[in-house]
Write a structure and sequence with these properties.
The protein has about 600 residues and is an alpha/beta fold. It contains 24 helices and 18 strands. The strands form two sheets. The chain has a ten-stranded mixed sheet with strand order 1-2-3-10-9-5-6-7-8-4. An eight-stranded parallel beta barrel has the order 11-12-13-14-15-16-17-18. Helix 1 packs across helix 6, helix 2 crosses helix 6 and helix 14 packs across helix 15. The longest helix is centred in the first third of the chain and has 32 residues.
Length: about 600
Amino acid sequence: MTGRRSRPLTDLRGLKTFMDEDNQKETIVMRGVGVSPGVVIGKAYLFDRLDTQVPLYKLSAPSLIAEEIRRFRSALRESEKQLRELTKRLGDLGGGMEPLYIIDVHIMILRDRKFIDRTIQNIQEKSVNAEWAVRMTIDKYREIFDRMEDDYLRGRISDIQYAGQRIIENLSEKDRAVMETGEGFVIIATDLSPASTAQMKIDRVLGFATDMGGKTSHTAIVARSLEIPAVLGLENITRCVQTNDDIIIDGSAGVVIVRPHPEVSKRYEEKKRLYEKARDDLLDHAKLPAVTKDGYRVEIGGNIEFVEEIPSAIAHGADGIGLYRTEFIYINRKQLPDEEDHLANYRSVVGVTGLSWATIRTFDLGGDKFFPGAKPSRELNPQLGLRAIRFCLKEVELFKVQLRAILRASARGKLRIMFPMISSIEEIREAKRIFYEVKNGLLKTGTPVGNDIEIGVMIEVPSAVIIAEELAKEADFFSIGTNDLIQYVLAIDRINERVTYLYEPLHPAVLSLIKQVVDVGHRAGIRVAMCGEMAGDPTYAMILLGLELDELSMNPLAIPRMKKIVRGATLKESKALLKKVMRLHSSSEIRALVEETMRKRFPDEFQING
């Protein structure tokens, strides 16, 4: 930083803070888990899952600023009126004075001169709409309250948030003229549920940074699907950032910089340019087949959650759709999707020009994903509870609606169906029984369906590996879901940042189980695919080749680089590396050997990671 002096203030748990002595603004550098590559430089938006999505509008004329101040004052009056009506109703019902005192506190906040003046100042100085200005005021108060040592006083920020949210809701319900839309923003959150990300205006999201999460969390998968940079597992990013702060996300290095110095921003602009050039160069490999130098071919599939991702999958070189996560048809809807809703989605996936096949996974609801109207169950361990195929076999009518749509779509082209989280032979047999019951029902009515639908079993739990020989008799193919398999084998919560370091795809137990599944599948004469995030990580490319997997399905963004590495390797050397790895007994030894091998064999691809 030429001509500037910065002195370090603290270095704690990966958090490094600097005070720029010229303008007294803190620059904070944080390290987390880089889950989606790339660089973004933009404005932060502190997302609260309890909030509505607060819109941002830039005000381009003084008259619009005056109008926003008028709207804000009107919303204040309406909010106070609503609270007074609530006070009257509660008084009529009886039941004690404590709720009335709380409402009085909220009315006092609505009248607070500092709260009002700060919000008006935000509108005037930042030229933003009233909703965004209120949100900025709340964030400022949150920053002040977080510094308080008294737990009771610190907890009173909830009163300000409640009052502010009421104002925002009243603002949002008012009609307003269309104003100039602001630029996109970087989402800052504690964590993001599938429902939260589904309701965002994704086209205006530039990146993600969260306290929680890891490489296989929902947020990571969404970020990679949308090709936007993301860093997760930052632990306390939400306490360090205010809405509208300048922020840099480096998803390749796992770095987040809050309120960067101008020269830092300049350097990252150059890094962003270089990254985008390298990404464009990799696209040259996208359309080439994934064939090793000695002739071993691996089919490459794309993992998708929304049909809108199909053009990206084709552009990045997917041979087919290896995993379509259908549960996202259910979320962010007021009503359950009917058979026609399902069919419209599946018809957009099957028989698409440029894709040889489509693999539809039946819905994996439960856990952290729920359908409209469902209340999240109070399970102590939701990932071990009623989810995936267990949920389907309990909610059979919901299951049949989806199966009918899948079968009807199968008439359009090559379609494969697979059932998630199979843990017993009874589950796959019951799922198949329902499948054929639905199929026969359609055939009786003369509804056309495909004749060659393959049925697959997702191998995601240890019991499925142990009984793989029996499952192979029931399935046309296996697909290894490493995200859950690793989680269950190693007994870790993959979205818990405290144990992220234990999530190790190269753990000898994990590799042994994967090899067992491949060997069993090939002896039974069925193909074995991998569709977890491990399949798209280039570090593991030679290991996966050595295992002789038939198909790797991944986020489309990862395909060009994976193809480039596969085309530069040989099956012979990959099997030799796997043989060495399988003799080792610790994850650290295996990782050191694999990373060293990849750096030596592909120096241009792994020099940054080295």
